[in-house]
């Protein structure tokens, strides 16, 4: 039984499931940001428990094949070292899972924050979609919208 699970959860399969698995969360954030479903499932810790499980599984798989975790710190030495690290599919999956989790967290934060300032949910959909696709650019777009709704600029909030 365990052998079948390991043969099923290849890196490619895991990549596909992570990408497909976050889509329902993003759809709920975009179309139903004020619903109880969004509040109790998407903006809670639930999706991050799932993504943490994936992260742990990838790290465990890396440990089993003898991955050099100390070599990861070489990414700070230059762009060529970062490129070398991205040649490894397990490292790339750790990065991708990290990216997906951070973007989803930021999307949840944007929904919660927008409710404080009564930002229109149709207007909120624009930075949410951009955050899903391009991360930091979506946060910037949201921040611009937020300035107009809050009628003030707060750099530390």
Which key features would you list for this structure?
mainly alpha; globular; single chain; 157 residues
What would your notes on this structure say?
This protein has helices at 2-8, 11-21, 23-31, 36-42, 46-64, 79-86, 89-116, 121-134, 136-150. With 157 residues, the chain is an all-alpha fold. It has one domain (2-116). The radius of gyration is 18 Å and the shape is globular.
List strands and helices in order, with pairings.
Elements: H1 2-8, H2 11-21, H3 23-31, H4 36-42, H5 46-64, H6 79-86, H7 89-116, H8 121-134, H9 136-150
Morphology call: globular
Roughly how many Å is the radius of gyration?
18 Å
Helix content: over 70%
What is the number of domains? 1
Count of discrete alpha- or pi-helical segments spanning 4 or more residues: 9
Give unreliable regions as ranges.
Answer: none
Q: Can you write the helix and strand succession as a string? A: HHHHHHHHH
Major β-sheet annotation = none
Mean pLDDT: 86
Query: What is the tally of beta strands?
Result: 0
Distance between the termini: 49 Å
Brief overview:
This protein is mostly helical. Helices cover 75% and strands 0% of the residues.
